[in-house]
Amino acid sequence: MLKPLHDNVILKKEEVEKKTASGIILTDSSAKEPAVAKVVAVGEGKEKDGKRIPICVNVNDRVVYKEYAGSKLEYEDEEYLIVSENDILAVIE
């Protein structure tokens, strides 16, 4: 099990849709990966002035993150992305 430290969040990127809503099939070169992922694990938050500031996202949230943020990680044959909480731009509700 991966457990992020401090204000880091582990994301599982969503699969890229290879077909548009109108039915056009995209090739690998034309399909841009969305910066949308599911939160798999969250750290305890960062410490400021001796107090722990909790992270604003929860496990299973769908989020939008900065396109080139984070570090890729392969763990137990799965690909994950570790990002700072500051790299998460929005929660999809």
From TrEMBL:
Its main location: cytoplasm. It is found in: Cytoplasm. GO terms for cellular component: cytoplasm. Gene3D superfamilies: GroES chaperonin. Keywords: Chaperone, Cytoplasm. InterPro entries: Chaperonin_GroES, Chaperonin_GroES_sf, GroES-like_sf. GO terms for molecular function: ATP binding; metal ion binding; protein folding chaperone; protein-folding chaperone binding; unfolded protein binding. HAMAP family: CH10. Together with the chaperonin GroEL, plays an essential role in assisting protein folding. The GroEL-GroES system forms a nano-cage that allows encapsulation of the non-native substrate proteins and provides a physical environment optimized to promote and accelerate protein folding. GroES binds to the apical surface of the GroEL ring, thereby capping the opening of the GroEL channel. NCBIfam families: PRK00364.2-2. Belongs to the GroES chaperonin family. Heptamer of 7 subunits arranged in a ring. Interacts with the chaperonin GroEL. This is Co-chaperonin GroES. It comes from Copranaerobaculum intestinale.
